[in-house]
Design brief:
The protein has 9 helices and 8 strands. By secondary structure, the chain is an alpha+beta fold. It has 3 domains: about 110 residues, Arc Repressor Mutant, subunit A; about 50 residues, no CATH class; about 70 residues, SH3 type barrels (Roll), CATH 2.30.30.90. Strand 5 and strand 6 form a beta hairpin. The longest helix is centred in the first third of the chain and has 24 residues. It is globular and about 65 Å long.
Length: about 250
């Protein structure tokens, strides 16, 4: 059993907090972690020691806390689930932000990969389907963008040419170009790996460079650099963004 499988909800919360602090400030300190978690500093050190024993953080008492690469992957997985749940509660159920946040915190630890996949499919469908909200969920179950076993759109569907064609595979962006993830055009293990990396609809990323032959491709996701295989970059459908003005 790997280190991620033995994480308790409390340890996942600490790992997520370290990740967010490192993303925000380039480092994490015990006292900052305590403030973010609303606990005493003395409660943080045992958790950091346990995460260090699992190989997820680098921690020496009275020094900064940093993530290992394994820890970064595990934290990104937890944060991706939190983000999807928060958007589901806030944007679809129209719950207040504070309640959406607390519900996402409570459920992110038990959200299965299958449920995560299905919820992201719903967001992809809502972004792509131009029809009115009437019978929206019924159409969701019939949409090939959201369901691998649906080959074609039902008669009368207007999505063709209404948003889907405005996207391109990430692999078609040149080095230095930016894009917004619209959907993940794959299923199974490839899709789950991309979801766990935080490649969610609405996520902005930048292509940094391609290896000779185009495989792999390195992208910038927040402050992290991530390497994707060419077939993974092909599966990510993005909407290109205008170049940033210096």
């Amino acid at each position: 059993m790997g280190p991620v499988e033995v994480l308790t909800p409390a340890l996942e919360d600490y790992l997520e907090t370290v990740f967010l602090l490192v993303e925000r400030h380039k480092f994490a300190r015990v006292r900052d972690i305590a403030v973010e978690r609303g606990v005493k500093p003395g409660s943080v050190s045992p958790a950091m020691k346990r995460l260090a024993d699992l190989g997820l953080v680098k921690y020496v008492q009275r020094e900064y806390v940093d993530l290992t690469e394994t820890g970064r992957v595990a934290a990104r997985r937890v944060l991706a689930r939190h983000t999807v749940l928060f958007r589901f509660f806030r944007d679809l159920l129209k719950l207040p932000e504070e309640l959406s946040e607390s519900e996402a915190c409570a459920m992110e630890h038990s959200l299965s990969s299958a449920t995560m996949d299905r919820m992201v499919s719903l967001f992809e469908f809502l972004d792509a389907c131009p029809q009115s909200p009437d019978s929206l969920l019924a159409r969701f179950h019939q949409c090939p963008i959201a369901n691998a076993d649906c080959e074609d759109c039902k008669p009368g569907c207007e999505h063709e040419g209404a948003g889907v064609e405005a996207t391109n595979p990430l692999s078609e962006l040149a080095a230095g170009e930016r894009g917004i993830v619209v959907r993940i055009g794959s299923h199974g293990a490839i899709r789950q790996r991309l979801l766990n990396m935080g490649m969610l609809p609405g996520t902005e990323l930048t292509v940094e460079r391609y290896a000779p032959g185009g495989d792999p491709v390195w992208i910038r996701l927040g402050t992290s650099q991530v390497a994707l295989r060419r077939h993974e970059a092909d599966a990510l459908h993005v909407k290109a963004l205008a170049p940033e003005i210096a």
